[in-house]
Amino acid sequence: MSREEYESVIGLEVHAELSTKTKIFCSCPTKFGASPNTQTCPICMAMPGTLPVLNEKVVEYAVKAGLATNCTISKDSKNDRKNYYYPDLPKSYQISQYDKPLCENGYIEIDTKNGKKKIRILRIHIEEDAGKLNHDDFGGGSLVDLNRAGVPLIEIVSEPDISSSEEAEAYLRKLKAILEYIEVSDCKMQEGSYRADVNVSVKKKTDEKLGTRTEMKNMNSFRSITRGIDYEIDRQIDLLEDGKQVEQQSLRWDDVSGKTFSMRDKEDAQDYRYFPDPDLVAIRLSNEYVENIRKNLPELPEKRRERYLNEYKMTEKETDIIVSSKYLSDLFEEAADICKNRKAVSNWIISDISRILNEKELEPADIPFTAEQLAHLVMIIDKGTISSSIGKKVLEELFENPREPEDIVKEKGWVQISDEGEIKKIVAEILANNQQSVSDYKAGKDKALGFLVGQAMKATKGKANPQLLNKLFIEELKK
Ligand code: ADP
Ligand code: ZN
Ligand code: MG
Q: Largest Cα–Cα distance in the chain?
């Protein structure tokens, strides 16, 4: 049989940490990066006799996420205990939701190479995060950090509607953008606040029944996820082609070897002995409560995309880059409002800012300068104070040590030379030193002009006004 006879089926369980100030069942802070065990209390350390109290913001944020992904909100839900032992889980159960999740039956739409596709969302439930084990640097032992224990999570479970690694990436990016837009999670993948369990199976196209799935746990980069999916699809097809079977397993993806490794046989729901948490009351929501959240939902990426395309007449390419991140999109709108030059702001974002973010491996949220500073950069270029090539150097400075672009330019002596007399002198000098290009130009080789302008720019370290340079070169060459 050939590989073309198989198709792959993927379902994703996304965990997003909610950006509430305090944890889900106690008032400890949730800030990332604090020293180990400094954000803990008897409740999240699971001392006997303590009682959890549900943080209402968690419900509000989860409902927001449900509404933004077209889910039905359950007016009657509850918390359940999911029982298992692990050293980062001192209660030996995780408070989660089992048969009555807060949100059900939603979907989001993604763009695929065959057009738009709906990916259904089975459920979104709230739960607490576990602590963290530190295995490194302790002479063979492991240490437990409970700062993360009790940080609120939503788990967003998709139906197995995803057919390839590209679709999985599109889904994860879209969902991430939505959560950022509604401001319920900062979705910082390197910090683990947006991570996914990735379920993969394959089956023959002619088969109705889905194949046996494997599950890669806790993946937090787009690259590992797409590589992991492609690897699993290949591995599973190979097994079936060899007449073997895929085992239902939890796997660990290893980035270095580019392979998956078995962690354990996959547990089933009955293994967890779920039961309603007797320490917590049921969660009852009024219509009014839900409708009020619906009314106050901010503009979602899809709407913003339409606005950019229809009202701003932006291209699809620039729109998609900017709208993909709320941070970029807000930066764009604020800066454009100030400098009144939307096109220039968009160009900076999709070219140089995106390039630098890539080089420095930063997320848009880590951009250190303000929208006002970006707007001022555009304005001093529009005014002719600096050329756009100097503008690039100012942008690099804004990333290094953000301050007023005008101050940077003064400090560095980058003000543009727009004095006609001064530029004439430079033009004369360049012409005198490049006789060959002068003859080339006169012989009809227009390219020679570009070379001459480039030489003049080099000589002035990019400070000469390029329009003026062009004009004066042509005047001289026509003589
Ligand atoms: P568990 O927590 O046991 O993994 P869940 O119901 O929370 O179970 O999640 C199951 C996930 O696996 C869902 O995202 C679902 O779409 C996906 N899934 C279920 N069956 C398959 C399958 N045969 N192939 C790929 N994905 C699957
Ligand atoms: Zn606590
Ligand atoms: Mg799972």
A: 95
445 domain residue, yes or no: yes
- Kindly report the CATH number assigned to the domain that includes residue 440: 1.10.10.410
pTM of the model: 0.85
CB 81 within 8 A of CB 272: no
Give the residues surrounding ligand 1 with Cβ less than 6 Å away.
Answer: 9-13, 157-160, 199-201, 210-211, 213, 215
Q: Which of 27, 36, 77 is nearest to 277 (CA)?
A: 77
Q: How many domains does the chain have?
A: 3
For atom 11 of ligand 1, which residue has the closest CA? Answer: 11
- Cα of 197 vs centre of ligand 3, distance in Å, is 6
Token pair recorded at residue 126: 């709230």
Asked if residue 293 is part of any domain, the answer here is: no
- Ligand 1 atom closest to the Cα of residue 157 is 14
Tokens 């002198």 belong to residue: 425
Measured in Å, residue 188 CA sits from the centre of ligand 2 at 22
Domain that holds residue 365: 299-412
Give the C-alpha separation, 91 to 76, whole Å.
Answer: 26
Nearest listed ligand to the Cα of residue 121: 1
Q: Does some domain include residue 303?
A: yes
Cβ atoms within 10 Å, residue 329: 24
**Ion ligand 3, residues whose Cβ is below 5 A away:** 13, 197, 215
Residues 220 and 191 in one domain: yes
Nearest atom, ligand 1, residue 210 CA: 23
The number of the ligand 1 atom at minimal distance from the alpha carbon of 13 is 14
> pLDDT tens digits for the chain (479 residues)?
578 899 999 999 999 999 999 999 999 999 999 999 999 999 999 999 999 999 999 999 999 999 999 999 999 999 999 999 999 999 999 999 999 999 999 999 999 989 999 999 999 999 999 999 988 776 778 899 999 999 999 999 999 999 999 999 999 999 999 999 999 999 999 899 999 999 999 999 999 999 999 999 999 999 999 999 999 999 999 999 999 999 999 999 999 999 999 987 766 777 899 999 999 999 999 999 999 999 999 999 999 999 999 999 999 999 999 999 999 999 999 999 999 999 999 999 999 999 999 999 888 989 999 999 999 999 999 988 898 889 999 999 999 999 999 999 999 988 888 888 999 999 999 999 999 999 999 898 989 999 999 999 999 888 888 888 999 999 998 88
Q: Are residues 394 and 471 in the same domain?
A: no
In a shared domain, residues 322 and 222:
no
**Closest CA relative to residue 248, chosen from 259, 234, 238, 263:** 263
DSSP code for 98: S
Kindly state whether residues 211 and 339 are assigned to the same domain.
no
Atom of ligand 1 nearest to the CA of 160: 16
Q: Are 106 and 238 in the same domain?
A: yes
Both 335 and 425 in one domain: the answer is no
